[in-house]
Amino acid sequence: MSSHRYIQSLIRGCGRNTMRNSVLKSSVTMNNVQPMCGVQIARYQSTANTSSLGVDGTSWTSQAVSDKLISPTTDYIPSPPPVPDGLVDDLTVQTTLNALGEPTLASIGLGGWLPSGMYQSMLEALHISTGMPWWSSIVLSTIVLRIVIFPLVIKSQRNAAHLHNHMPTMTRLQQKFSEARASGNQVETVQAANELSSFMQRNEISPFKNFLVPLAQVPIFLSVFWGLRGMASAPVESLKEGGLYWFTDLTLCDPFYILPLVTMATLLATVELGAEGLKSAQMGHILKWFMRGLPFAMFPVVANFPAAMCCYWLTSNVFSLLQVLFLKIPRVRTYFQIQQQVKHEDSAIPKKNFVEGFKESWKSTKMVNEMEQRAQIDLMRFKKAGAGPLVKTFPYDPTKVKKSSAISAKSKS
């Protein structure tokens, strides 16, 4: 009977110990501990500090078993899961090298069919085919772009020379129109305007043709700007060593500000000499001084441009200045059918300083605004008079003549 109870207690102890092991297994690591049952439980319960042998033959004590069961492991780091097949090939960046051993622009996300991307592709083709450094490739690409728009330059120079030869008469008619407008006489103003317009049509004068080259250069300039800025921001590693002298790194701005300073100086020279077909003397007073002050206002901004951008802009300005000298040769002007400019006397074209010209322009603008306001007020009064009731402007109603006055008028007759 006692042996039967002993066996039942062993079974109950084994069940309780198995449940205890299953609970602790979720929070601790059971690498070296084996579940106990039967005689091992009785042995463990009877002797607390006696060494025993585990199932795997190792020797351990009850204190060691309790430490392994209670203390959690903190140094265990699970191994990462394996990478699925085919994913490694997708994550690998394929870098394509060109003939010079440099990564192509397409492999780093540049190029494309946008205007800036097309310029990047053209610049890369020049760099690879000629083997020249990046700075010389930029210079060569700038020359190519300026040659493309050279026919527009010829057309603009023809119009500028034609306008210069008729400038004295144009100035006289414009002065007559300004005086008529200042007097407030609308009849004389219209007559002066018609006279000036007929003179320009008769001689085929169009001042707006002088803006052909600047307008054509705007999209080219923006395309080159965004293209070079994208290459500098990527960055193209070979562009960092593609400069020369003091600006070897074309992705950074000039540390000595020499390139921005020379670029703005040549820009001012192109404005004064009319390199793009528009001289400062042929501009309006406000536009002339605006163009003269533009290089000074832009210098702080251009100073932060990458050296590659300043290299392009400086090359374009130098090309414009050389183009002016080339087109001043008499044989060249004859070949391109550009008129020789007539030298006018100083009295034929009156010159004014900045203050006088600004005062006159401000007075003319103010007068035009006053005349427009006056015309609007007259129009409002005319509409009000036509839609409202009649205003009484006489002391009596002529439609209602008194009988006595009518009889007296008959008697007199």
What topology does this entry show?
Layout: H1 2-24, H2 39-46, E1 52-53, E2 59-60, H3 62-70, H4 87-91, H5 115-130, H6 134-148, H7 150-165, H8 167-183, H9 186-202, H10 212-233, H11 258-273, H12 285-302, H13 307-327, H14 330-335, H15 354-387, H16 403-412
The arrangement of helices and strands along the chain is: HHEEHHHHHHHHHHHHHH
Strand content: under 5%
pLDDT averaged residue by residue: 76
Measured as a percent range, the helix fraction is 55-70%
State the end-to-end CA separation. Answer: 170 Å
Model regions low in confidence, pLDDT < 50 over at least 5 residues: 22-34, 37-46, 48-58
Q: How many DSSP helices?
A: 16
- Radius of gyration, in Å, reads 47 Å
Find the structural class using helix and strand composition: mainly alpha
How many strands appear in the DSSP assignment? 2
Q: Widest sheet: strand order?
A: 1-2
Described by strand count, sense and barrel closure, the largest sheet is: 2 strands, antiparallel
The coarse overall form would be elongated
Give a quick set of tags describing it.
two-stranded antiparallel ribbon, 413 residues, mainly alpha, elongated
Description:
There is one protein chain. By secondary structure, this protein is an all-alpha fold. It is 61% helix and 1% strand. The protein is built from 16 helices and 2 strands. It is elongated. The termini are far apart. About 8% of the residues have low confidence.
State the gist of this model:
With 413 residues, the protein is mainly alpha-helical.
